[in-house]
Design brief:
By secondary structure, the protein is mainly β. This is MALT1 protein.
């Protein structure tokens, strides 16, 4: 309770050579002293001369940082550990000259074909200051449990087939990856999987079915953001009206 950190440093994701300042602020009952530490792989060490609340850095390698704050009574607290993630970017992945830290996608997921029961992995990456948060979608539906750069499914099911994309966002805005198709296939389906597949494809003559197609990507126009949200909201509305909904992207 003698020392309270009032401003924590933040993680960033930047191209190599990017200049940035990590900041830590604290308050206490006496004069406070600061000391920054750095960890790269398994090596953690004190940064010589880094004794100010601000730590200017030039991004060269991905490293972790923390700041120790102590007072004259030998009380000490550490800030959160933060990651400075450094990307060796290709030219088309570099941020624009007037980049202010909004997310920039540098790795898009790729189309996947996997067998039922096999692992499924989709990956994306984005730069941003602060480091972006991630949210994956399947057929326009938010995947609540998948909030990392990597979407990992240990045992793929037929219902995991569909169109996937990810949204990278931070306090400056959001950016979407390309939409990609995932095909989960099997020559011999288990009875439960066969029933599930039939339910998705066939409906009774008296049933109501809605097919929603959101066009997100255009050859001669920037990618749109609204179709993903529109398909998701319209799907919920139609389901409430008794429709069986099949939603697709592009």
């Amino acid at each position: 309770t003698a020392i309270a950190i009032t401003e924590q440093p933040v993680s960033i994701s930047v191209p190599v050579g990017y200049s940035f300042t990590l900041q830590c602020r604290a308050k206490g009952r006496t004069l406070l002293q600061y000391q920054w530490f750095c960890q790269h792989q398994s090596d953690c060490h004190q940064i010589l001369g880094a004794t100010n609340p601000d730590l200017p850095i030039v991004a060269e390698q991905t490293k972790l940082y923390t700041c120790r704050v102590n007072d004259l009574y030998r009380n000490a607290v550490f800030s959160d550990w933060v990651k400075v993630e450094v990307h060796q970017c290709v030219a088309r992945g570099l941020p624009p000259r007037l980049w202010r830290g909004e997310p920039v996608i540098i790795l898009n997921p790729t189309e996947q074909r996997v067998e039922v029961g096999k692992p499924l992995l989709l990956q994306c990456a984005a730069m941003g200051v602060p480091a972006p948060c991630y949210q994956w979608y399947q057929n326009g539906n938010l995947l609540e449990q998948h909030k990392r750069k990597k979407l990992w499914i240990t045992h793929a099911k037929v219902s995991d087939s569909g169109t996937y994309l990810c949204c990278a966002s931070n306090s400056h805005g959001e950016h979407w990856t390309n939409a990609v198709d995932v095909h989960v296939e099997s020559e011999t389906l288990a009875p439960a999987e066969r029933l599930q597949l039939c339910h998705l494809v066939f409906v009774s003559a008296t049933g109501k079915i809605a097919l929603l197609v959101g066009n997100n990507c255009y050859q001669h126009h920037p990618n749109l953001m609204a179709p993903v949200k529109d398909v998701f909201e319209l799907s919920r509305l139609l389901e409430q009206l008794g429709f069986q909904v099949v939603s697709l992207l592009d």
